[in-house]
Structure formats: C-alpha cells, structure tokens
Amino acid sequence: MTTKTWKYDGFVIRTETAEDIAKIRQLNKDVFGQENEARLVDQLRDGGHFIPQMSLVAVSAQGEVTGHILLSEITGLTDKGPVKTGAIAPGAVAKQHRSLKLAKGLADCLLEQARLLEFELIMLLARPRVYNRLGFSAELARKIESVYSDAGDAFQALELKQGVISETAWARVTYTAPFVECDG
Ligand SMILES: CC(C)(COP(=O)(O)OP(=O)(O)OC[C@H]1O[C@@H](n2cnc3c(N)ncnc32)[C@H](O)[C@@H]1OP(=O)(O)O)[C@@H](O)C(=O)NCCC(=O)NCCS
Asked: Cis peptide leading into 90, omega within 30 of 0?
C-alpha cells in the first residue's frame, strides 16, 4: 500500500507503516496509562477488522510519532437496511503535543479517507469538545442502539451519507469482539 501523506502545521499526518506499529503501541500505553487501548489496536489489526488506510499517525519534524487515530468497520443496521459504519477508536495525542489541533487534524484526514472508502456513518466515543467541531453529534448518536448508548454525550455519530440515521426510524450499531474484550 502506498503511504498517503498530509502536511499539518509543522507535523506530517500519514497512513501507518510497519515501522510505526511498535511506536503506536507505546503511544497508546503512555497516553491512556494502561494496556487496553494498545491491545485494542493490536487485536483489531490481527483480527481481520483492520483497514490499513484507516490507521493514521501524526509525526513531528523530529520523526516522533506524536498522535494516532484508528477507524475500523463495525456493523450498522437501520430499518432501511445495512449502513457502512466505521468506529473511531482509539485516538491519542502525546501529552507534550496537546492543544495544537492534532486530534482534529488526524480526524479530518481520517474522515477524508472514510469518504473515499464510502463509509456512510462514523461512531465515536470521546469527550465531545474535540470532535463536535467536526460535526459529530451526541444527539444523532442517541437515535442509535448500541452497547455505548448509556455513555451520554461521549457517544457521538457523524453521517457521511446524509439522512442515513436522521431519516430513519430505527438504527443499531454492533461493535466487533475486540471492543467488547477491551471494555471487559
Ligand atoms: C483527546 C485528545 C486526543 C485531544 O488531542 P489534542 O490534539 O490536544 O486535541 P485538539 O488540539 O485537536 O483539540 C483540543 C481541544 O480539545 C479540548 N480537550 C482535549 N482534551 C480534553 C479533555 N480531556 N477534556 C476536555 N476537553 C479536552 C481542549 O481543551 C481543546 O479545546 P479548545 O481548542 O477549545 O481549547 C488528547 O487529549 C488525548 O490523547 N487524550 C487522552 C486520550 C483520549 O481521551 N482519547 C479520546 C478518546 S479515544
């Protein structure tokens, strides 16, 4: 796979390469202070849920991996039929590089990739402030049945295909096994 690259305010955002894998693991361990999210990435990567174009890193001018974001495919279903759905998780930016809009930049590039792969709906579990400026909505997510439905405003959704949720009567998303194990 060719590496896709974006320039972002002194950083490079690009699709992951094999050399990034150990650095992504370490970044997630450092940022979350536990193994769960690093393990989630590994399990998604190993479990057939991984889409290489959907794992992006932010790299500093010094070549340090300072941020990572991953989208994997989950199952989406509405009363009108199946919906191609992606789940963003995890997303991490190293502490010393926060508030530079790196998380926003990573998500912007990821959504560009998701549109290319014709995803129709994107789900996300995170504090709203970073992502509602990208159009993610907790109100929209409340229409969708899920194991995270009781997560309040952290559970957010974005329609990439207009109306795919807002114009349906009923919707459900089902996460893959690695998420269930990560939460367990
Ligand atoms: C959430 C995270 C990815 C944001 O990274 P970032 O590059 O600093 O984010 P951005 O610069 O794009 O946006 C920063 C904005 O989000 C807000 N923000 C970031 N983390 C926040 C938090 N934990 N609580 C509340 N607001 C937060 C900042 O105040 C800032 O808002 P402002 O621009 O209005 O001042 C980063 O803080 C992180 O890795 N946190 C730990 C892991 C995590 O929670 N990941 C998300 C769920 S998987």
From this structure: yes
The residues pairing with 125 across neighbouring beta strands, listed in sequence order, are 155
Atom 35 in ligand 1: which residue has the minimum CA distance?
99
Q: Where are the domains of the chain?
A: 5-183
Say if CB 24 and CB 106 are below 8 A apart. no
Question: Residue 51: CB within 6 Å of ligand 1?
Answer: no
What fold is seen in the domain 5-183? Aminopeptidase (3.40.630)
| Interval 64-108: pLDDT, tens | 999 999 999 999 999 999 999 999 999 999 999 999 999 999 999
The pTM is what?
A: 0.94
Pocket test for ligand 1, best of 59, 102, 106, 129 (most atoms within 8 A of CB): 129
User: Six-digit token pair at 52?
Assistant: 């290489």
Q: Is 91 helix (H, G, I), strand (E, B) or coil?
A: strand
